[in-house]
């Protein structure tokens, strides 16, 4: 098995989900007592979130590069950044390490293309949902059209993530709100929803919605397992 590095703490609650998904998949594939060979560099989310909220992406890149270098020095053969928004700084990270970054946008786009999905709604925090670079890369890699960004929904998700989900707090109000919003999106001219926030799976049942849900955490974790087991 290869060794994979995770840049986590972005937030700890979603990193825990990555850890669970990856290990469960490895155990399912290999059986017995097998588990994933992982290194985790878990950052203080308050510091990284401060960079992102002030649009200081050089600051955010500094945190990511530092973590990536530590993982590479520890023997990691590839890196997963356990957050959608921090993929904005992947080019800076890639230029500073000699191992690949498993890019969440490439993996989502590849899955959409393989499933022949042509139109989607992108749902996440404002740093993703409203970000031109993220949207353009997903369009290019997935060959899809995107529903126009909903600033009100993005703002509500920001508050949900930073006030609740990043601290592991799951509420019925958040679950009801997301179910209502996804039901409304299903009335639009789209084939699927991309859940582009690694915390949203905590309040969205990705298998029980009107539209198919492409959950970024699950898709990214599956790509991590393929790398670990050298399965392309």
Task: Describe what this molecule looks like in 3D.
- The protein has 232 residues and is an alpha/beta fold.
- The chain has 2 domains: 4-103 and 219-228, Rossmann fold (3-Layer(aba) Sandwich), CATH 3.40.50; 105-215, Rossmann fold (3-Layer(aba) Sandwich).
- The chain is built from 10 helices and 7 strands.
- The strands form 2 sheets. The protein has a 4-stranded parallel beta sheet with strand order 5-4-6-7. Strands 2-1-3 form a 3-stranded parallel beta sheet, with helices on both faces.
- Strand 1, helix 1 (12-30) and strand 2 form a beta-alpha-beta unit.
- Helix 1 packs across helix 10.
- The longest helix is centred in the N-terminal third of the chain and has 19 residues, at 12-30.
- The radius of gyration is 17 Å and the shape is globular.
- It starts with a strand and ends with a helix.
- The model has no long low-confidence stretch (mean pLDDT 95).
Q: Unreliable runs, pLDDT <50, ≥5 residues?
A: none
Indicate the CATH architecture of the largest domain. Answer: 3-Layer(aba) Sandwich
Q: How much of the residues is beta strand, in percent?
A: 5-15%
CATH topology of the largest domain: Rossmann fold
